[in-house]
Design a protein that fits this description.
Layout: H1 2-12, H2 15-33, H3 38-46, H4 55-80, H5 89-100, H6 104-137, H7 142-158, H8 164-177, E1 181-182, E2 189-190, H9 204-222, H10 241-262, H11 269-282, H12 298-313, H13 315-321, H14 327-338, H15 347-350, H16 352-373, H17 377-382, H18 388-407, H19 410-428, H20 433-456, H21 463-466, H22 468-485, H23 487-498
Antiparallel strand pairs: 1-2
Helix pairs in contact: 1-16, 2-4, 2-16, 3-4, 3-9, 3-14, 4-5, 4-6, 4-12, 4-14, 4-16, 5-6, 5-12, 6-10, 6-12, 6-13, 6-16, 7-8, 7-20, 7-22, 8-20, 9-18, 9-19, 9-20, 10-11, 10-12, 11-12, 14-20, 18-19
């Protein structure tokens, strides 16, 4: 472990990679501050530009954007009651009340320190558990991978907002979209409709930029966000003496929750933050504490630690099993594939410098964010005064330039616009893009492992039940769906998304 970490720090501490880590966390904080962007859309827009970078630099920068956005989202949530990132929604509830009470500085410092604690401990979990899981993954067969992908897609459907039927339809549409192009085994053309540009399949970067980048711009233009004035940031930077212990406990509980939930299918920062806030709200409060939801620092520290921990442990299933647990990790998988590297069990042995360099850069990035988040809080909040009508043309131009840099074909810009309309349709009909994106990315892998499993078993489908891992994953999938069909569970799920 120490030798591996030494290799990682030797990779992360080069001048170039330090620069890309700093750029990633700085840009990620900006992304978290500005409502309507988010890490998914931003990473989608930046994917084409990472092709010119070294693989380690590209992954370090994109990862920095992801967990940097978790820090930045809390700044405007506390100061303006305007969450810049989805996982910061619950931070508004207590954070903005504290700001209006003249304790904005205390709320900001608690959020920054809790995020640092969550990110640091979660990165340690990534460094410890990922190699063990990668070694175990070598023992898995194609039937096991198929069953795990089914479980992952089911988890993404269950945790998607809206009805389960819509989420299932999105997943199925994504699986079908992943089949467009030439079948590498038979040479047959599938869903190309005679188009030469579709024979190589749909480009992941173009599709993701359209569904997230262009569609988000259209939604934000048609539904402009309200912009308030910056709240006063008076008060002490540090919590009161009697608040230190409850806040520390909330941050540690959030870290544990985020570390576990971040690695689950469909998990990540959003699920971790909401679960932590729910836990803090149900725990008994001290005699001098106000209730969580009315200006309690536990309601800030817990979710902020959880979302940063969840953001970092979501790399575990991607890098060890090759299965992205959420939409952002699907983007990271796309970035690795742009550099001809497939995430999976062999990733740690084939590219140890990249994996351990990423782990080391996360520790470095968390330190940078701790010193960056507080001094620039006022600057980030003032960026919200920029009219959105000046921002969205630049973002659209950035998307188009990124698409053209991939193939220099104008048809890709038209494809970008088409998937922008598809993303707008998803938004208008209450459908989430994440199940579609995961289905698109996992579709070809699922097909490959399914064919291989049936080939080895001579077409016998019972191979999925005779393998212990496959049988357990399929049983978990059935139990998950059966539980969701129960009226009580469905009602609780609807209430959670309603909140």
């Amino acid at each position: 472990m120490l030798e591996s970490l030494a290799l990682g720090f030797s990779t992360a501490l080069t001048v170039a990679n330090l620069g890309y880590a700093a750029a990633g966390v700085l840009f990620g904080t900006l992304v978290g501050v500005l409502p309507g962007l988010g890490p998914v859309a931003t990473i989608a827009m930046l994917l084409p530009f990472t092709y010119a970078l070294e693989p380690a630099s590209a992954v370090i920068m994109l990862a920095g954007i992801y967990y940097g956005a978790q820090y930045g989202g809390s700044t405007t949530a506390i100061l303006l009651n305007l969450p810049g990132e989805a996982s910061a929604v619950v931070t508004c509830l207590d954070g903005h009340r504290l700001a209006r009470a003249g304790r904005a500085a205390t709320a900001l410092s608690s959020a920054a320190i809790a995020s640092f604690l969550g990110g640091t401990l979660a990165t340690a979990a990534l460094a410890f558990f990922a190699p063990l899981l990668a070694e175990a993954a070598f023992l898995l067969g194609p039937a096991d991978y198929c069953a795990l992908m089914i479980l992952g897609l089911t988890g993404a459907m269950v945790l998607a907002q809206g009805s389960l039927l819509r989420a299932f339809a999105m997943t199925l549409a994504g699986l079908l979209a992943g089949l467009v192009g030439t079948d590498l085994q038979t040479g047959a053309l599938r869903y190309t409709f005679g188009s030469l540009s579709l024979q190589e399949g749909l480009d992941f970067a173009v599709l993701s930029m359209g569904i997230y980048g262009v569609a988000d711009i259209i939604v934000n233009v048609t539904h402009p966000e309200g912009r308030g004035e910056v709240a006063p940031r008076a008060g002490s930077l540090w919590p009161r003496r009697e608040e230190v212990r409850p806040v520390t406990g909330a941050a540690l509980r959030g870290t544990v929750l985020g570390t576990v939930l971040g690695a689950l299918p469909g998990g990540g920062a959003l699920l971790s933050a909401f679960a932590s806030y729910t836990l803090e709200k149900k725990l008994p409060r001290g005699t001098l504490e106000v209730p969580v939801g009315e200006g309690n620092l536990r309601g800030v520290a817990g979710p902020e630690a959880a979302n940063n921990a969840g953001a970092q442990t979501s790399f575990i299933p991607l890098l060890t099993l090759g299965i992205p647990p959420n939409a952002v990790m699907a983007m990271m998988a796309g970035a690795l594939m742009l550099h001809d590297m497939a995430p999976g069990p062999a990733f740690l042995t084939d590219h140890p410098d990249l994996f351990w360099g990423l782990v080391a850069s996360m520790w470095i990035g968390n330190v940078l964010l701790l010193f960056l988040n507080l001094p620039l809080a006022g600057l980030w909040a003032s960026l919200l005064k920029i009219p959105y009508r000046l921002l969205f043309p630049a973002i659209l131009l950035f998307c188009a330039a990124g698409v053209l840099s991939l193939s220099l074909e104008a048809s890709d810009v038209l494809t970008l616009a088409l998937f922008g309309l598809v993303g707008l349709f998803f938004a208008k009909t209450g459908c989430e893009g994440a199940p579609f994106l995961l289905g698109f990315l996992l579709g070809p892998l699922f097909e490959e492992h399914l064919r291989r499993a049936l080939l080895l078993s001579h077409g016998d489908f019972t191979v999925f039940l005779t393998s212990p891992v496959s049988a357990a994953a399929l049983a978990a999938t059935v139990l998950l769906l059966a539980a969701l069909l129960g009226p009580n569970v469905r009602r609780k799920r609807d209430e959670a998304f309603g909140e």
